[in-house]
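Retry 2 of 3 after timeout on previous attempt. Resubmitting structure tokens to design endpoint.
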């Protein structure tokens, strides 16, 4: 394959590392640490400052991952593989990408940010628990897809 394909794969994986690595950091380190803060206002303030900065980085990464991903599918002429059970990780990648795109570009600016700001102050325990669970779900799905694509694209199919 010509080098533009390799370049696309390099940028794709770099985008995934920064984006999903950031999600892992927020889920496994930052959220549990913030939940131990005494004052609820401080929890909301610190989490919004961190998540706000990360959201900007994640937005750029999702755009790069999406563009390079679709470019690779087109170059490999792999559209037909989307229907094969052995290649479940192809629609899996698109599903993860769509989910994050929806959260970052639509739900967050529309209402998630406001919802978190209000409920994080009035019901801190419940809100942070819910946010933590949602982050674990997103991270678990993303990591499952990463395992599938790295194994599958190197010839190790689960079924
Ligand atoms: C629009 C969304 C996406 C499309 C169309 C897409 C498409 C692709 C394609 C065609 C490949 C090359 C597969 C092969 O060589 O057989 C690839 C590689 C890869 N993708 Fe995606 N992808 C997308 C989003 C994602 C997401 C969200 C993740 C992470 C959760 C991800 C993780 C990876 C990884 C880690 C590789 C490298 C696999 C390897 O070379 O070992 N992709 N992607």
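Retry 2 succeeded. Sequence:
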């Amino acid at each position: 394959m010509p080098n533009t394909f390799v370049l696309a794969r390099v940028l794709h994986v770099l985008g995934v590392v920064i984006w999903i690595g950031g999600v892992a950091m927020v889920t496994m380190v930052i959220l549990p640490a913030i939940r131990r803060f005494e004052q609820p206002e401080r929890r909301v303030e610190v989490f919004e400052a961190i998540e706000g900065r990360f959201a900007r980085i994640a937005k750029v990464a999702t755009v790069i991952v999406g563009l390079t991903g679709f470019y690779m599918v087109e170059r490999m002429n792999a559209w037909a593989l989307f229907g094969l059970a052995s290649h479940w990780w192809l629609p899996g990648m698109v599903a993860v990408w769509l989910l994050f795109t929806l959260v970052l570009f639509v739900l967050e600016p529309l209402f998630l940010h406001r919802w978190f700001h209000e409920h994080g102050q009035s019901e801190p325990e419940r809100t942070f628990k819910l946010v933590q669970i949602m982050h674990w779900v997103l991270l678990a799905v993303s990591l499952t897809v990463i395992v599938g694509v790295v194994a599958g694209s190197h010839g190790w199919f689960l079924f």
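Attempt log closed. The mean pLDDT is 96.
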